[in-house]
Amino acid sequence: MDKILVDSINFAKKAGLLLLKDFKKVKEYSKRGHSKEIKTIYDKASEDLIKKLILAKYPEHSILSEETGYIEKDSRYLWIVDPLDGTGNFVNGNPLFSVSVAFMEDKKLKCGAIYFPITNELFFAEKGKGAFLNGKRIRVSNIDKLEKSYFVTCEGEERSKKRKAKLYSRIVAKAVDIRKLGSGSLECAWVASGRAEAYLTFKVPPWDVAAGVLLVEEAGGKVSDFKGREWSLRICDFLASNSLIHEKILKILKDI
């Protein structure tokens, strides 16, 4: 296992254990600007810990994180951090939250780790070496029909209720069901491990899904935006699937 991956795992787990200590103790929170997105002191505490750990070992590396934004260095290396993915769930005592840490070299994803403290599930992936859950290899599902597929989604940053309604109505008409989990990392992990066939959402920021992108791809899945373009470090519409139904979903999304 690569040293950077080992560190990614350790950073995610240490932050996850910090969050676990304060789970169900949330007394106050605020919202980010005009969005519905919630932030707490725990998001910041988790991020501060991860940044401290990264910079102690890799002071020359850049960091992109949800709370602080971009800490830019003159470097080929970039860490992408979501210190608390699923803050709304965390605030409400819902166990579906995680810590996500990804690493890029020359703008290419190299490894990533996603840790779910409540279930003690550690998902990780390394470029060219596969995707794993608690050390065991995982693969996407082999379902190739929409009518047998489960979809997952979360809020994203799309404000248009009309656009959301159009998407959900089309998916519900074709698939078994669509479930809203409230954590992009979790939804990517579900696709990668075969618990769902596809995850889609509007305007997702990179820290929500960076580790999940590599996880899905290394598990045999496919990731793109709604037009079939490959994922990049920008806020964009997002689709991750088991690859077998990817093109069928893109046809449904064509004019949304």
Short description:
This protein is α+β, with helices and mostly antiparallel strands.
Structural commentary:
The chain is α+β, with helices and mostly antiparallel strands. Helices cover 33% and strands 29% of the residues. The protein has helices at residues 3-22, 41-57, 87-91, 161-174, 184-192, 206-218, 246-252, and strands at 30-31, 38-39, 62-65, 69-71, 77-85, 98-105, 108-116, 121-126, 130-133, 136-137, 150-153, 177-180, 198-204, 222-224, 236-241. The strands form 3 sheets. The protein has an 8-stranded mixed β-sheet, sandwiched between helices. It has a 5-stranded mixed β-sheet with strand order 12-11-13-15-14, sandwiched between helices. Strand 11 (150-153), helix 4 and strand 12 form a beta-alpha-beta unit. The mean pLDDT is 91.
Question: How do the strands and helices of this protein lay out in sequence?
Answer:
Blueprint: H1 3-22, E1 30-31, E2 38-39, H2 41-57, E3 62-65, E4 69-71, E5 77-85, H3 87-91, E6 98-105, E7 108-116, E8 121-126, E9 130-133, E10 136-137, E11 150-153, H4 161-174, E12 177-180, H5 184-192, E13 198-204, H6 206-218, E14 222-224, E15 236-241, H7 246-252
Parallel strand pairs: 3-5, 11-12, 11-13
Antiparallel strand pairs: 1-2, 3-4, 5-6, 6-7, 7-8, 8-9, 9-10, 13-15, 14-15
C-alpha termini separation = 41 Å
Strand order of the largest sheet: 4-3-5-6-7-8-9-10
Number of domains: 2
Structural class: alpha+beta
Reading off the top of the CATH hierarchy, the class of the largest domain is best stated as Alpha Beta
